[in-house]
Amino acid sequence: MRLENVWLRYHRRGSWVLRDVDVRIGPGEVAVVLGRNGVGKSTLLQVAAGVLRPGRGRVIDRPARVGWVPERFPADQPFTVARYLTGMARVAGLARSAADETVTAWTDRLGLAAFRGVRLPELSKGTAQKVGLAQAMLRPPGLLVLDEPWEGLDAATRDLVPELIDEVLATGGAVLVSDHRGETVRLPGARRWTVADGTVTEETSSGDEAMAVVEVAVPAARVAGAVARLRAEGHQVLRVRPEAEPARPPAPDPAAVDGGVPAVGEAR
Ligand SMILES: Nc1ncnc2c1ncn2[C@@H]1O[C@H](COP(=O)(O)OP(=O)(O)OP(=O)(O)O)[C@@H](O)[C@H]1O
After folding, report:
1. d(CA 197, CA 11)
2. Angle at 43 between CA 42 and CA 44, to 5 degrees
3. 20-58 pLDDT, tens per residue?
């Protein structure tokens, strides 16, 4: 699939959120979309999924079946979990009995069995997100688009996300996933697209690229935010250590980096 010279803005006279974006993703590939809040990651994913239509440019070779998991599952619909998912399975082309079986399997797998009879508006945010994930996976998608899929999920389901991604890749699907919290570490083989100033650049780092280690001190209360920001900007966070612990010298080469240098952030 290719986004070919895609431009997008939300209002006719508004500024362009995406400007001349040209990216491709192939079968069996996963790309993580990184960037600061508000930079256009969701917008890019929605164009890829076909939810938004570009103002200029086009999307070509989008797989026929797209699984789309929005950042916030729209739970303001008057259905129970089972009714909603069965309806979505039918829309996706499954016969009634196959739809029922698939919904049972996915609700079991995602820990939703106890919620089958619960109406969507009554679900917690995390449980609603699981319904969103189930909905996207009811039939194996040729393109799975996940907008901040780790947001609001419990630990067990967060661990399941890479598994689901691997399953889509194994059936020849492509996966796009945004991540501003640094969960990307869970997808070590992923390509990395960074959105900034309306454009998307792909990191072309190879394993033998020279690396440098930068030690950064931050107030203890702000560690989580600083780590998330560094990761969102594409840096590897090697380790977080308390200030009292003495620093070892920075690694001179990538091999030493792999050995675990006590730096908070590593700049590329
Ligand atoms: N429906 C909309 N109408 C108007 N402007 C919008 C709409 N959705 C997003 N925008 C604007 O487009 C820009 C990009 O938003 P987008 O949600 O794509 O960013 P993001 O990188 O996904 O942010 P975050 O990390 O906070 O999820 C922002 O300036 C946002 O305010």
Report:
1. 18
2. 90
3. 999 999 999 999 999 999 999 999 999 999 999 999 999
The whole-angstrom separation of Cα 227 and Cα 219 is: 12
**Inter-residue contact 56 to 5 (CB < 8 Å):** yes
CA of 117 to the centre of ligand 1 (A): 34
Which ipTM did the prediction report?
0.97
- Is there a single domain that holds both residue 185 and residue 255? no
H-type alpha helices, the chain? 41-49, 81-91, 96-109, 125-137, 155-170, 223-232, 254-258
Q: Are residues 189 and 252 in the same domain?
A: no
Residues 176 and 92 in one domain: yes
My answer on whether 190 and 215 are in the same domain is no
Residues paired with 4 in a beta bridge: 58
Ligand 1 pocket member 42 (CB < 6 A): yes
Closest ligand 1 atom to residue 148 Cα is 27
Distance from C-alpha of 56 to C-alpha of 54, rounded to nearest angstrom: 5
| Out of 103-117, 132-146, 246-260, least confident range | 246-260
DSSP string, 234-262: T-B------TTSPPPPPPSSHHHHHTT--
Domain enclosing residue 256, as ranges:
210-268
CA of 43 to the centre of ligand 1 (A): 6
Closest atom of ligand 1 to CA, residue 46: 18
